[in-house]
Amino acid sequence: MQGLGWTEVVVVLFLILLLFGAKRLPELARGFGKSIKEFKKATTEIESDIRSAIEDEPQETPRVQAKPAQPKVETPPESPADKDRTE
Length: 87
What we know:
By secondary structure, the protein is mainly α. The protein has helices at residues 6-20, 25-56, 80-86.
């Protein structure tokens, strides 16, 4: 499919002319033009909202500072003799 050729466009325009009549064609074209204009306006608004949201984000991510490692305090292992004293 390579799109519509000039003959297909002529056939479509002829069918529209038959369906809606010559008096309503300017009204339909005006409505179609307004719809296209509103669609383009909405897409540019959405595009600008997205761009502003991207620009508002901070460029650098905050760095998480690592806490200094605390030295481990080792407790001496209990010997079996110590267990007898506590009982």
